[in-house]
Amino acid sequence: MRIGLPLHAALAAVALSALLGPGASAQQVLKIGLIEPMTGPFASTGKQVDAAVKLYLAEHGDVVAGRKIEVLLRDDTGVAPETTKRFAQELVTNDHAEILAGFGLTPLAFAAAPVASEAKTPMIVMSAGTLIIPQRSPYILRTSFTLPQQTAPMALWAAKHDIKKVYTLVTDYGPGLDAETTFKTVFTANGGAVDSARVPLNNPDYAPFIQRAKDAKPDAVFIFVPSGEGSAVMKQFAERGLAAAGIKLIGTGDVTDDDILDSMGDPALGTITSHFYSAAHPSPENKAFVAAFEKANGGMRPNFMAVGGYDGMALIYEALKKTGGSTEGDTFVAAAKGLSWTSPRGPMTIDPATRDVIQDVYLRKVERVNGHLYNVEFDRVAAVHPDGK
Ligand code: PHB
Question: Which of 304, 307, 311 is nearest to 258 (CA)?
């Protein structure tokens, strides 16, 4: 009980909130517990999501459906699932957060899912990409992407563009395994052949893997590595002379992440990837988003993690408008199902069947535009479902 509040007033407040249920009282603060790696090897994801959430609040105001939004940011420091779970528990129990959000990597989303289930707290996955994440709790909704969804268009494009033999190299955990399986399934069904290897998630050394990929003499190497790792891959690809040996680099857009793409330099030019977001996406919504994001963040270019965070807030705001400010788990999830809006990425819908995102996926090529490297979109597969179909 708060010091200084007369006992009868405190009891009245408790009784009122019990009567109205969670989130129903006007002007009541609504706390969102945002958990992301803000330090450590995946800090770029946290930095991007945090900046995007702040931008959304600055643009849309911090009051929605009579609720004043307050974001409580927690740094889970990298791949530390027990830390993520502890923060989720403390946020719900001690801080009375009514929504959990963020989740920079798949193991961190898995770790928080039981907390969301137990407390019936909506949990918005803004970053992680393994397909089965929403199956871990009925209160999970996702605004990022899935790896099958991002990979299938790349595999199909490769099969149709004279690439016959591919070496897949993925990070050895959930999203990498989804990418590998999807690539193999789609590419071999379309006549291609695949060799595969997996790189550890922690402290990866790409050199021996890229060398093995080169020795296998494929037409292309398909890469999935989590956001932030692309530069290290690109460096090895260049140093070991794969391009000179006639081996193409293809992948999901995680490897040519907008956050670090411009610093990769010439070796990245010509890389073809499939993905849901490019900072060069030529829509008015995206141009406004990129300009505002860069202005608010000292010129930092938004990447796909930023868009997952921005749209996570859009989902929260739109669902709250429908529930009249209630965050009661089942009510909130029901309101979120089927929501559809125009994101900086293009059109997106929350699939009522899976609580996951249905979105367009683009084929892109790294090109220099006005002196800077960008993923320039040249083709689009409309409304791809989470399973890549
Ligand atoms: C994940 O852990 O799910 C993840 C992280 C970074 C990515 C993609 C997927 O770029």
Answer: 304
| Cβ contact 104:121 at 8 Å | no
Q: What is the per-residue pLDDT for 357?
A: 98
The CA distance from 370 to 377, in Å, is: 16
Taking the C-alpha atoms of residue 166 and residue 377, their distance in angstroms, rounded to an integer, is 22
Distance CA 68, CA 64 (A): 7
What is the reported pLDDT for 196?
98
Answer yes or no: are the C-beta atoms of 210 and 169 closer than 8 Å: yes
Q: CA nearest 204: which of 185, 229, 179?
A: 229
The pLDDT of residue 336 is 98
Q: 17 near 96, Cβ under 8 Å?
A: no
Query: Biggest alpha carbon distance in the chain?
Result: 79
Q: In the chain, which residues have pLDDT < 50? A: 1-26
| CA atoms of 312 and 32, how far apart (whole Å) | 11
Tell me the two tokens of residue 247: 């081996």
Which atom of ligand 1 lies nearest, measured to the CA of 252?
10
Local structure of residue 301 (DSSP, 8 states): P
Ligand 1: which atom is nearest the Cα of residue 173? 2
**Best probe residue, ligand 1, of 47, 76, 105 (max atoms within 8 Å of C-beta):** 105
Q: What is the token pair recorded at 50?
A: 């945090």
Q: d(Cα 226, Cα 127) in Å, to the nearest integer?
A: 11
Q: In sequence order, which ranges of 229-303 are alpha helices (DSSP H)?
A: 230-239, 261-264, 284-296
